[in-house]
Each structure stands twice: as structure tokens, then as C-alpha cells.
Amino acid sequence: MTNTNTHFTASNIPSQQGRRVLITGANSGIGFETALELARRGAEVILPARSLDKANDAITRILREVPHAKLTPAMLDLASLASIHAFADFIDATFPGQSLDLLINNAGVMAVPQRELTVDGYERQFATNYLGPFALTALLYPHLKQQQGTRIVTVSSGVSNQSKIEFDNLQSEKKYNPMFGAYSQSKLADLIFQQELQRRLTSTGSPILSTGAHPGYAITNLQISGPQGKMPFPMRLATAILKPLASQDAHHGALPTLFAATSPDATPGGYYGPSGFQEIKGHPVPAKIAPSAKDEALAKRLWSETETLTGVTFHLRSR
Ligand SMILES: NC(=O)c1ccc[n+]([C@@H]2O[C@H](COP(=O)([O-])OP(=O)(O)OC[C@H]3O[C@@H](n4cnc5c(N)ncnc54)[C@H](OP(=O)(O)O)[C@@H]3O)[C@@H](O)[C@H]2O)c1
Q1: Which pLDDT tens digit goes with each residue over 57-82?
Q2: Which of 130, 141, 183, 272 is catalytic?
Q3: Atom 20 of ligand 1 has which residue's CA nearest to it?
């Protein structure tokens, strides 16, 4: 048994034998570390990536450490609704019925320098970080086991505390600010979704938990992987200053996610981040939830707007 007063490490992850988990963005950074640790504890892991090569590369790296791991590669581009539907069809065909114990919405992009639109015409960060995970979760929901222990984990960010939802600028159509605009809004939307999802699960009597996490500041590809491969100057400056002082590696950045995904002490709607100053690094503890992420009217409005934008209605059934 672990709790947030003791330091949760990967060694505290309960056995995952017999559990099938799906992690987006598991070919890199925090998602990769999450997949590795869950596989080490016996989970079967589905790793969808933007190409099969990337998924298979991650599988090769995990198998080096966990030779008998059961791992399934797949393709998924969260910035494309067609790709999300195709991936959901793949899950329908390959893992029919209530086949999943854990869904971790981890994939994301940060601070894309110039405003870009996806194939569906949505701003890339809002689409990848929020609309896509919402649609994916809704489409995969029928595959989640309606039993104790099943969880949906959504990865947000500390910058959600410095944001607001601008319904008249959801796609940054009026003003584009790569980090403290489009990115932070998308990560606040993730947190609002995670909280609202728990309320809806509870109201339908579902035993599934919706938990959330943020990694603080973890050194991963996120800081360099905008589609144009470069960050705006303020981000480069902030990174150069903060990196040596206050950051953790991807393994430690994954611990809040692993706590939210596996700890018996995670609570319904619980949101976890690092314990240290400004939640930048440290062991997993309950994280600060932005007041707007607790605003139920705002959450309902965003949910409804998201169903319209994605064309995906999220049906939660009663037990
Ligand atoms: N690192 C931090 O300090 C930090 C702080 C706060 C929050 N976060 C959050 O943590 C999560 C993981 O980020 P990370 O730091 O591990 O970054 P990362 O190393 O860049 O990993 C991001 C993952 O998301 C995938 N991805 C990006 N766009 C995608 C798309 N359109 N469809 C499917 N997958 C896509 C990437 O795939 P490719 O390899 O194909 O690009 C990669 O696997 C993100 O949600 C991020 O917002 C990170």
C-alpha cells in the first residue's frame, strides 16, 4: 500500500498481470517510461504511435528491458478524426468487447511556433491535446471494463493553472499564443475533461475512475518536437534557464501518471503532480486544480461544444 505521504516510485506499482493498457504517445518521453514500467509489472500494452515504425521502435526498446512483454503496435494520429475512428475500428476488431483495463491519454504537442490547422481544420494543439483524446476516449469507452480497477488517466500540465477557456477563440482564430494560449488552453481543457468525466462516471454508477496527472517539468522531446522543430524564443530562453535548475528526467516525470494509473490511493477525480516548488519536480502528490477546472457549468458547455466539434457523442452507460 502506498500513499501520497510516502514517496511513490516505480517499485510501488502494483502487479499489472492480466491487465491490458493502452497508452498514447508511448514512443517517447513520459509515455514511453509509463509503458516500460507498466510492462515491467506485467501489463499487456497497446502502443499506438504516428507511424508503425515509431511504435515498433518503442517496442524494441521495451523488449530489451522486459523480454517477455506483450506489446501491440498500432497507428494513431490524434490530430485526425479519421485516424482516431480507424484506430477505434482496429481496437473493435482486435480486442472486441470489454477488453481494456486502463486508457492513458498522454500524447501531446507543445508550443507549435506558428498557428497550424489539422486536416479537420482545427488548431493543432487544441486538436491533438484535447479534441483527439476526448474523441478517442468516447469511442473506446465501450471497450473499458466496467469493474473496479479500470481507469482513464488524462495527462494535463501545470500551465493549466495559467489559462482560461476562450469559447470565442478555441481554435486561436482571433489570437495565437503558442504556449500561454493555445497550449495552456488545451491542457486546461484536458483537466476540465478529466474532472467532468469523473462526475459523469459517478452519476451513471460506473466503477471506472477518471484520474489525471502532470509531470512538472520533465526533459523529453516535448520541448523540441513542434512540427517545425523549433521553439519560439521565450520558450528557448525559459528552457535554457530552467533546465539545469529545475527539471527531472522522463522516468520521474512519468511517476504522477503511474500513480494516477495504478496506485490504490488514487481517488476518483484525483489529479497528481510533483511535490516540489511550483510542482516542477518531486514525488507524486495531489496537484493544484485550477478553479476553472472545477466549474461545472463551464465543463458542461465545453463537453457539449467538444461533441459538436468532434462529431463524437460520448455515451456513458449505467451498470
Ligand atoms: N515534459 C514536460 O515537462 C511536460 C510538462 C507538462 C505536461 N506534459 C505533457 O506530457 C505529455 C507527454 O509529453 P512528453 O513530455 O513525454 O513529450 P514527448 O516526448 O514529445 O512525447 C509526446 C508524445 O505524443 C506523441 N504525439 C504528438 N502528436 C501526436 C499526434 N498528433 N498523434 C499521436 N501522437 C502524437 C508524440 O509522437 P511523435 O514521437 O510522433 O512526435 C510522442 O509520442 C503531453 O501530454 C504533454 O503535454 C509534459
Answers
A1: 999 999 999 999 999 999 999 999 99
A2: 183
A3: 222
